[in-house]
Specification:
Elements lengths: L4 H30 L9 H7 L5 H8 L5 E6 L14 H11 L3 E7 L5 H4 L8 H16 L6 E5 L5 H11 L5 E4 L10 H12 L5 H11 L11 H11 L15 H16 L10 H4 L2 H14 L5 H11 L6 H10 L14 H6 L2 H11 L8 E2 L2 E2 L6 E5 L5 E5 L23 E6 L2 E6 L9 E9 L2 H10 L6 E5 L4 H4 L8 H9 L4 E5 L12 E6 L16 E5 L4 E4 L3 H6 L20 H6 L12
Parallel strand pairs: 1-2, 1-3, 3-4, 11-12, 12-13, 13-14
Antiparallel strand pairs: 5-6, 7-8, 9-10, 10-14, 11-15, 15-16
Helix pairs in contact: 1-15, 4-11, 6-7, 7-14, 8-9, 8-20, 10-13
Cofactor: [4Fe-4S] cluster
Family: Belongs to the IlvD/Edd family.
Keywords: 4Fe-4S, Carbohydrate metabolism, Gluconate utilization, Iron, Iron-sulfur, Lyase, Metal-binding
């Protein structure tokens, strides 16, 4: 079906806006690809270092330019549950590649931090910047110029966006992303949330809270709620970096290993040495990014991607804006109910039809572009399938059923959960921000209440514990932007604000920081830019100012006399405590050079 007229118009606008940067980027990619197999440019000494530890057979193969060499970039560590399964992947990939007549080497490792571990801790102030550090680390691994293609092993929050930025920086190379999958279902997410709120109210102790958390996060794989990690996997599939049906297969299963072997072999098949050359920089274009944004809206995905998608697009010379994302939200219906937008987890989503059913629905109604390139070939139609194992243990794919396996989790466009997507842009006299509304009840889409100003999240926690917040209010938590302290997630504010909302108070959050990818039921205007540290208007708000957050109209306003508000001096804050400890001193250059939130909050130009 032809693309929806609004989808076509927004895509055309992005193409036109991006032309100068995109044409320059493609010229660089094509010139790099035209140089041919890159090992031919290495001196004998360079090459000898590059294959010193290889087997004699692999050395003979790499000495010429007729055998493809696959570079593996891995984010393996055994502290992070989602990345622990990657420990065994390089051996699987090497074996599969040898079967296909190639060579594979681990080109490098990248850091992978867990926002779940660092929530509310000093280390969270490194989290957003880790994305750009990951991109640079991956670039170092690929800079050896030994490779004809790359596979990227990464799943979680900043890791996948960082790896995508690296893949696009090396856009002359084909790149395949290989997921490890979600952990099996544990304690239901709504029960976990209930225990968190009880703990915030002092009704259960730390032992009960730890028991609930441990039953939720209990084994290898991504956390099962639909936060940034699982939004990443959706994006990689709908944008064509994954093989069809690969995203949500559990670790340690025969199908997971078969998909990994298939991905490694596919990466070899699309090198310049073969007949299906698919360099990442040519493959991913404006239509790919529009498809990604549409998928984000249709599934109620992570607010963090209003930063990451913009930064990823810029790496390919594409100028994606919050306005584009917001306008796409107006025409894309919500088709998935996965916690925190519902009670199900990603395993339930996958069992209900998952990505194959979702993409089929979006294609049927012209809401995504089918005429795109992917690592699997041409066209998104090939992704309307379910991956299974055949009798020989190989991957085979079947068309997804016409009906959802569970309409309460995954529905059709004919009966959507809501008519618009989950993310909207907000503008007003305190700047520009975004809000996730897919989990917010409609009666809470508009909040008008007096401001209570905080300069860090602990101040709000303390006020809650003192009982000072039992009233209608808008919490303004500022000096949390990228230049101030690295833009940490403020997810620890969710339980107390949720408690107050459940008590019947009108509450909302306004901040230049981030919320978790699992942003939930409390209306939150986040990523406010310009940030307070830059003298943004959020720094002029005072206790008692009436604030109106209107997610329907897309506005965020201080209801004050314009001249008086403009004349106010912006607040200042002592941020010296954020400059040292837990590695924060190492990231001072990032804080000094980071761009605005609506430009991706990146240190890259």
């Amino acid at each position: 079906m032809a693309a929806h007229s609004a989808i076509e118009a927004i895509t055309a606008r992005i193409v036109e806006r991006s032309k100068p940067q995109r044409e320059a980027y493609l010229d660089r990619v094509r010139r790099a690809a035209a140089r041919g197999p890159h090992r031919s440019t290495l001196s004998c000494g360079n090459l000898a270092h590059g294959f010193a530890v290889c087997s004699p057979a692999d050395k003979d193969a790499l000495a010429g330019d007729v055998v493809p060499n696959l570079g593996i970039i891995t984010s393996y560590n055994d502290m992070l549950s989602a990345h622990q399964p990657y420990e065994t992947f390089p051996a699987i990939i090497r074996d599969a590649v040898r079967e296909a007549g190639g060579v594979a080497q681990v080109a490098g490792g990248v850091p992978a931090m867990c926002d779940g571990v660092t929530q509310g801790q000093p280390g969270m102030e490194l989290s957003l910047f880790s994305r750009d550090a990951i991109a640079m680390a991956a670039g170092i691994g690929l800079s050896h110029n030994m490779f004809d293609a790359a596979v990227f092993l990464g799943i979680c929050d900043k890791i996948v966006p960082g790896l995508v930025i690296a893949a696009l920086a090396f856009g002359h190379l084909p790149s395949v992303f290989i997921p490890a999958g979600p952990m099996t279902t544990g304690l239901p997410n709504d029960e976990k949330s209930r225990i968190r709120q009880l703990y915030a109210e002092g009704k259960v102790g730390r032992a009960e809270l730890l028991d609930a958390e441990s039953k939720s996060y209990h084994g290898p794989g991504t956390c099962t709620f639909y936060g940034t990690a699982n939004s990443n996997q959706m994006l990689m599939e709908i944008m064509g970096f994954h093989l069809p049906g690969a995203s949500f297969v559990n670790p340690g299963t025969p199908l997971r290993e078969a998909l990994t072997r298939e991905a490694a072999k596919r990466a070899l098949a699309i090198t310049a040495i073969g007949n299906e050359f698919t360099p990442a920089g040519e493959m991913i274009d404006e239509r790919s990014f529009v498809n990604g944004v549409v998928g984000l809206h249709a599934t109620g995905g992570s607010t963090n991607h209003t930063l990451h998608l913009v930064a990823m697009a810029r790496a390919a010379g594409i100028c994606l804006t919050w306005q584009d994302i917001s306008e796409l939200s107006d025409v894309v219906p919500l088709l998935a109910r996965v916690y925190p937008n519902g009670l199900a987890d990603v395993n339930h989503f996958h069992a209900a039809g998952g990505m194959g059913f979702l993409i089929k629905q979006l294609l049927k109604h012209g809401l995504v572009h089918d005429d795109v390139r992917t690592v699997f070939g041409h066209g998104l139609e090939a992704y309307t399938v379910e991956a299974k194992l055949d009798a020989a243990g190989q991957v085979h794919r079947e068309p997804v059923p016409e009906q959802s396996g569970d309409p309460k989790v995954l529905t059709s466009i004919d009966v959507p959960f809501q008519s618009s997507g989950g993310l909207k842009m907000l503008t007003g006299n305190i700047g520009k921000g975004v809000i996730k509304i897919s989990a917010v009840k409609p009666e809470r889409h508009i909040v008008e209440a007096p401001a209570i100003v905080f300069h860090d999240q602990q101040e709000l926690q303390d006020a809650f514990k003192r009982g000072d917040l039992n009233k209608d209010f808008v919490a303004v938590v500022r000096f949390q932007g990228p230049k101030a302290n690295g833009m940490p997630e403020l997810h620890r504010l969710t339980p107390p604000l949720g408690v107050l909302q459940d008590r019947g108070f009108k509450v909302a959050l306004v901040t230049d920081g981030r919320m978790s990818g699992a942003s939930g039921k409390v209306p939150a205007a986040i990523h406010l830019t310009p940030e307070a540290y830059d003298g943004g208007p959020i720094g002029k708000i005072r206790d008692g100012d009436m604030i109106r957050l209107d997610a329907v109209a897309g506005t965020i306003e201080v209801l004050a006399d314009a001249a008086e508000f403009d004349a106010r001096p912006a607040a200042t804050a002592d941020l010296s405590e954020n400059e040292f400890g837990m590695g924060r001193e190492l990231f001072a250059p990032f804080r000094r050079n980071v761009g605005f939130a609506d430009q991706g909050a990146s240190v890259f130009a």
